[in-house]
User: Fold these one by one.
Assistant:
Number 1:
Amino acid sequence: VLHAVDGKTGEKRLGLELGQECFVTGSVALDQGRAYFGHYGNELVAVDLARGEVLWRHPSGNDQPFVSSPAIGEDRLVVGGRDKNLHCLAKADGKLLWKVPTRRKVDGCPVICGEHVVFGSGDGRLFVVR
């Protein structure tokens, strides 16, 4: 369940059921009233917080969870996957724009630095994508 509470009153604002085995282990990224996060149900999800509904779901494609926290750009987001890839998705619809393969899982959180994305992989390498 994705829970959202009012920061001033502690009042529950949202309790959105995600499904069985959809444990969220990474931090949720917030942007313009939307929450973006991955879970152990092998998906990256975008949620409209005001309406309390899932806008899109992006499956990992090989039954591997997303435990990395997404980094948000202007029109896209990047997130590491246990499928040994860094994924870049369109914020609007979750469409895969590109991915960068690595030799091991990508559990760490990528960072967007201007026009570059920096991330590490379990293979001990640091990547800079331009």
Number 2:
Amino acid sequence: METQTIVQAIILGLVEGLTEFIPVSSTGHLILAETAMGISEDPMWKTFTVVIQLGAILAVVAFYFGKLWNVLITLPTKAESRRFALSVIIACVPAFAAGFLLLDFIKTVLFESTELICWSLVIGGVVLLAIDRLAPKPDPHTAMELPLWKSAVIGLFQVLSIIPGVSRSGSTIVGSMLIKIDKRAAAEFSFFLAIPIMVGAFVLDIWESRDALTSDNIGIIAIGFVASFIFGLIVIRVMLCFVQKRGFALFGWWRILVGGAGLLAIHFAGFGA
């Protein structure tokens, strides 16, 4: 493996792990990073970015293994476990439906527009700043005890994340705070929703990219996978304490900074053209 390729793999794994669970859009950042490195058109890297998502998924599973395992083994006996599982299912249905119906449009139109991604980052940043400051006082819910109607509303907000740059976690967190869910609970429920949503997207994408998976690129993929897992685990641990104390304003400003820089690069340097 060439040193340059290894460095690119580490960078993309780092970007995926750091951005998947914070409301800044991991997809948008990955596309911008690939474009900046000049590898956005390489089929191998498209497959790479699909596979390393599994590292981030496993980070959530590892962090919440105790809670998730308890829910799994008590499903037949505890109403609370069945209610939590149902809340996750309800919240995931709209996104699965939208993804299934709009898959071709998303991949062939939305993901081709670097400018759209940058505008989504900027607009989403402004929205996040406003919601962080103006959200109504939260009700005392935990992420595992949400009313089912609130789960359904969060699921509808999650559909917005099919637009590159919007952010799956960002859309669910904004929706959660609008319906009086605590910032920490909003972040945690977003983590839980990531598991089925990302697994579904992973399975679909890996099937479509199966021909590009060869022994020649397994090593590079493994590097990105490990980086994604490690940094994803760090972000989950740090983010929960951070948002509880300081909210989401920092992520809003980061979105505006990255999106604004991207728009300037597009219009003055032909970035992504």
